[in-house]
Specification:
Helix content: 40-55%
Strand content: 5-15%
Structural class: alpha+beta
Shape: elongated
Strand order of the largest sheet: 1-3-2
Amino acid sequence: MSVERHIAGMLQQIARQQEIVEIAPQGTPRKAAALAHVAERYGYAYGTAYRTGFKNSLVQVRMYRDPRPDARVREAATITAHPRAGNGGTVPGLGQGSLKPLPEAVGAVAVLKDLVTFDVMAMYVADRRRQVMCYLICAVLPVLLLMDDKSPAEALISAGAVALCLTLAFKVGVIRRATIARRLTAAGFHEVRDDQGARRFLRPGQQLPGHANPFAA
């Protein structure tokens, strides 16, 4: 899907004043963060992100309509400044026809990219059941290889190599996520736990997203 169609689709959701706007650009957290920044300029706030779709190729971001008065002021100013956004006109914070942030939006998009990446990586480093399943597959792998006429040594070495790669991948994910957490904390975000016990980062004064009013106490 083209950049213009992604932006137009998102702005159509925003124009309907939906409480929740779903963003799903194909590819990287950077693209998702760029679109999330646009949504923020229209009075929405970041909620959560996760991978979905075929082979987890989509980064799905959920934005919540911010009911605070300053959000409505921000929305009105954006509509005035970009009257043809989504219809060939300029888009707040992004270069014409691209998802590349303008200089004044680089910092904000970088913060959103950290939020998106932190949440997306949760499925790989924080999901213990997924890790257990991966290691169970490694345990079964030698049997499958033996059935495929591999020697016992080949089967054990292959399974061991897969287990080692998984362990390294999980470890790297944990380290990278910790680095992002430090950056978000330095940027003024505070860490909380949601209803499922997952780690989340919120801006000062922000509450965990809810169905109708994500910022209500």
